[in-house]
Design goal:
Strand order of the largest sheet: 23-20-21-22-24-25-26
Number of strands: 26
Structural class: alpha/beta
Number of helices: 34
Strand content: 5-15%
Distance between the termini: 58 Å
């Protein structure tokens, strides 16, 4: 039998769902592939038994918990029952065992890796060792593949591991590795007896590709007389429908609306959103959108009295808001300098705020510090602030505890006690946990602290940083939601939901990238070696066969199944999965449904599909004939061709760092909206001066602009944050007005003006769209283009030189040659370009003009050295430079060649590997080139 064939080692019985529920007695155990599937079986069986009791007029509404478990849990249960088998190391202990061995090996070979990379290597080595043991791969075969770097490293690491925990160690040993448990069970004299004492029948569901060792275990039980039964899924004639969307945002929104409509009519419906893409960020986006549509706070109708619960499969403890708040305290201990965002997190932590009076005092303290433009603090300066002891005793208690926190190295168990005791000193467990779920989450955190203490068996002492890293790993386990074990709506990866049963199922992201899934090789084991030992995942046709099975199972998951896919993802054009029939990929309507699927049609694709490959030069992603990315894409291409290619062509995006309060880019959005409405009301400098004569009228205009800004936001903002931001924004606009008053007279020509530009290149025209914040015209008829910035200072020096460092405003200056706008006459000459930096403490204009316009910060262009001799010649140089940048994008130029400062906050260093190329001087800070926070 090949490893890619289903599990059929001996005569085996088949059973369907009705028979299974009827025959699942105390002597029968159902074993599933995953814990989630086991929980779903328990729910279905309990509901079926309760329905039977109700039909029999029984008053007993409590039924016995069905005998259902997953494969790994079952193995652990047998091991605990057989007393002669050594106790296995915990997952945390095994991880740190490999971590210590790998770190020692890297030090000996003078190889440098980051702690995160070493941790990832430990995970990979752990999975590789499990595979070596399960498939009985001898070390001699690993030695024959030493040309493979990963295999050579793994061979070095195996020796110390097997010296401590030999594969064939005597049963009298105290500890063993998890990979050796099946071997120990096969050698155990009491294993079969222990299983037969509990069960005479094992029903197997969703377990088709077991390693040889695990197959031997089942064969041994079968030979001893235990009946093996395989569950056979019945494929129903479900109502199947396919819908196509323009992008993920429209797909997410449409599915959330459909789920909300279902909940209105069936409040307790069991609904699944199964994502072909396993990305946790996308799943979280679905969950948030569904929650907003199904639990609208502003609607009080009878159909909304039931608040459905939305659960994300795999949500970890460290991702819980309560635990993230605790983690912010630990980060304050590591770094003596407290940034404003961390202080805000501490001040606004809901379970650390004490009574209502102290909450108000903390809010007032945050407002005072913001007005003073203070963004860095230390614990001692906060402790000595006026009124701290009288008005904010809880905050002072926390600061005193943080100040006295001991950070000297100590055993893991001591760290666990230290963390728990200090949290108690700060009052965390005794303060307002106002719901059972918060108490449950905190108890799970205490369980994670108990797991941390397990490291005492392997490591003598840990630094505080090492202890936090270990604790974070303990908190990476999925959350156990006691109050919502079976929520209404579950969002999970597609393969995790297969085998479950729902009332409605939405299977999303069914495009050619995600389904069928791409084959992934193991980083430490060569594929040829794995195929030689018939490892299923290494076979070439395994992915297709597995996808065919997945596809069939989706037809049985619910009576109503909706498949969906997007045509674009961040500008990347996508095609529907080859498993979706009758889809016209040329139709890009946002929400037009494809033809319904006829269940009688053959839906499976051929096992192999040959697609001709033609080497063609890369080209930018065009959306409706327009280059997507615009000035953003040109800027990255100018700073570093690889960065422009990665952002624009490969759609690579670094993970966004979450912060407490309002993000800098969100502040920029609010300011842009407020300034747009402010000048839309006024229109001219003269009108502004007139309102300056009456303070109440000006305040009213500013207030209306701010209200408009908040009404147009695309992201929710809490009322407390909105109040703080309103006060800050009022002061910012008032501080900016003098810069407008002190200019020569002007009027607003256009606001948020949309332009279509066509850049000529040697390979043709490159069309793009852009939005110009503001176009002014002074009393002399001069046109001045202004772009608002709320981030770091921008220098006009970036517009001069052999290569543009910041092409945004030079591109705006080309609007008179290349652009078209419905709001302003074409061919209107541009006389000046400038950034308006509107930021507390750092306000002003900075730009260039063709002559002296008497505006502070906008300098008259003067030729120096080899620079163009006039304003017109400067714009001619910009035309050439912008055309060259556009040509680079068309030709797919992607050299790793960054300008100074381009690497700061780039987030792609792991992809371009610039540190290995000797570009150290290019990664130094340059304020003029660092990422601006308002873009």
């Amino acid at each position: 039998m090949r490893a890619t064939d289903p599990l059929i080692l001996f005569p085996i019985q088949w059973i369907d769902e009705a028979q299974l529920i009827h025959q699942l007695t105390e002597e029968t155990l159902l074993i599933t592939q995953t814990t989630a599937l086991a929980n779903d079986w328990k729910r279905r069986i309990a509901l079926e038994k309760r329905a039977r009791e109700t039909s029999n007029a029984s008053r007993n509404h409590v039924c016995e918990t069905p005998h259902v478990t997953d494969w790994q849990t079952w193995i652990q249960e047998i091991v605990l029952s057989c007393l002669e088998i050594p106790t296995p190391l915990t997952p945390l202990q095994e991880h740190y065992l490999w971590l210590e061995i790998i770190e020692h090996d890297l030090r000996q070979n003078n190889i440098e890796f980051t702690p995160a990379a070493i941790s990832q290597l430990a995970n990979q080595a752990l999975s590789a060792y499990q595979m070596i043991v399960d498939y009985e791969i001898p070390p001699s075969e690993l030695a024959s593949h030493q040309q493979h770097d990963g295999c050579a490293a793994l061979l070095r690491w195996l020796t110390p591991v097997q010296q401590q925990f030999p594969p064939r160690q005597p049963l009298s040993c105290k500890r063993t590795l998890a990979a050796h448990l099946v071997d120990a069970l096969l050698e155990s004299a009491s294993m079969v007896t222990m299983v037969k004492m509990k069960y005479d029948t094992l029903v197997i569901d969703q377990i088709e590709y077991l390693p040889p060792k695990h197959q031997q275990l089942l064969k041994k039980l079968y030979a001893a007389g235990i009946v093996l039964v395989s569950y056979r899924e019945h494929i129903n004639n479900t109502a199947r429908k396919i819908e196509q969307f323009h992008d993920q945002a429209s797909e997410t929104s449409a599915i959330a609306k459909k789920i909300a409509a279902i909940i209105r009519h069936h409040p307790h419906a069991n609904i699944a959103v199964l994502c072909a893409d396993r990305d946790q960020q996308r799943m979280r986006s679905y969950a948030q959108k569904i929650h907003l549509h199904c639990n609208p706070d502003h609607i009080f109708l009878p159909e909304f009295q039931h608040h459905p619960q939305v659960s994300i499969h795999g949500q970890t403890l460290i991702e819980e808001p309560l635990i993230q708040q605790l983690w912010s305290l630990f980060e304050l201990i590591q770094n003596p300098v407290i940034q404003q965002k961390r202080l805000f997190t501490l001040l606004m932590a809901p379970y650390l705020q004490g009574d209502a009076n102290e909450q108000q005092e903390r809010i007032a303290l945050d407002q005072r510090l913001r007005k003073q433009n203070r963004y860095q603090f230390n614990i001692q300066s906060l402790q000595t602030m006026p009124g701290m002891a009288d008005k904010m005793p809880q905050l002072l208690r926390i600061l005193n505890t943080l100040k006295r926190w001991e950070r000297s190295p100590r055993p893991a168990s001591d760290w666990a006690k230290e963390i728990q005791q200090n949290l108690q000193r700060m009052g965390v467990p005794t303060l307002a946990f106002d719901d059972d779920e918060s108490i449950d989450i905190y108890n799970q955190f205490l369980d994670a602290l108990a797991k941390l203490a397990e490291l005492d068996h392997l490591q003598k002492e840990l630094s505080f940083s090492q202890a936090l890293q270990a604790l974070k790993r303990c908190c990476a386990s999925p959350v156990r939601y006691m109050q919502r074990l079976y929520p209404n709506i579950r969002v999970m990866p597609l393969e995790e939901g297969l085998g479950m049963r729902f009332d409605y199922a939405f299977i999303t992201q069914m495009d050619d990238r995600n389904f069928p899934a791409k084959k992934h090789n193991h980083p430490l084991l060569p594929n040829a070696l794995l195929r030689q030992h018939q490892v299923a995942s290494a076979e070439r046709d395994f992915t297709i066969k597995q996808s065919q099975r997945f596809w069939q199972q989706t037809h049985a998951i619910a009576p109503s199944v909706l498949y969906s896919f997007c045509h674009f993802d961040n500008g990347l054009a996508l095609l529907p999965s080859s498993f979706l029939p009758f889809v016209d990929s040329s139709n890009h309507d946002h929400e037009k449904s494809a033809k319904a699927v006829d269940p009688s049609e053959q839906l499976l694709p051929p096992s192999t599909q040959l697609v001709p490959f033609t080497a063609t030069p890369p080209s930018p992603q065009l959306l409706n004939g327009i280059l997507k990315g615009g000035t953003y894409l040109l800027r990255h291409q100018a700073l570093c061709p690889f960065k422009g290619f990665a952002y624009g062509q490969l759609q690579c995006q670094p993970l966004e760092i979450t912060e407490a309060g309002i993000l800098p880019r969100q502040k920029g959005s609010i300011l842009h909206l407020a300034m747009f409405h402010f000048w839309q009301q006024l229109g001219t400098q003269a009108q502004l001066i007139a309102q300056m004569q009456e303070e109440s009228l000006l305040q009213k205009t500013i207030q209306q602009a701010i209200v408009y800004a908040f009404s147009q936001l695309k992201f929710p903002l809490q009322s407390e944050l909105q109040a703080i931001e309103t006060e800050r924004l009022q002061q910012v606009i008032l501080d900016w007005i003098p810069y407008e008053i002190n200019r020569p007279p002007f009027q607003i020509k256009a606001l948020e003006s949309e332009w279509t530009l066509t850049i000529p290149t040697e390979r043709g025209l490159v069309p793009m769209t852009m939005i110009i914040d503001r176009i002014d015209q002074d009393s002399m008829g001069n046109i001045i283009i202004i772009d608002y910035k709320t981030g770091k200072k921008n220098s006009s020096k970036n517009w001069l030189g052999d290569r543009l460092k910041d092409p945004q405003l030079p591109l705006y200056a080309m609007s008179e040659y290349w652009g078209h706008s419905a709001q302003i006459n074409n061919n209107t000459p541009v006389h000046a370009i400038a950034y308006a930096r509107i930021r507390s403490g750092e306000m002003g204009l900075e730009g260039l003009a063709y002559e002296d316009l008497s505006i502070a910060g906008i300098d008259t262009y003067q030729a120096k050295g080899e620079l163009p001799q006039s304003w017109d010649e400067l714009k001619a140089m910009w035309q050439t430079q912008l055309s060259e940048l556009a040509l680079e994008i068309l030709e797919g130029v992607c050299d790793v060649n960054p300008m100074p400062g381009a690497c700061e906050q780039c987030g792609l260093d792991a992809l371009c590997r610039i540190q290995e190329m000797g570009f150290n001087d290019h990664t130094t800070s340059d304020n003029n080139l660092s990422e601006r926070t308002d873009e």
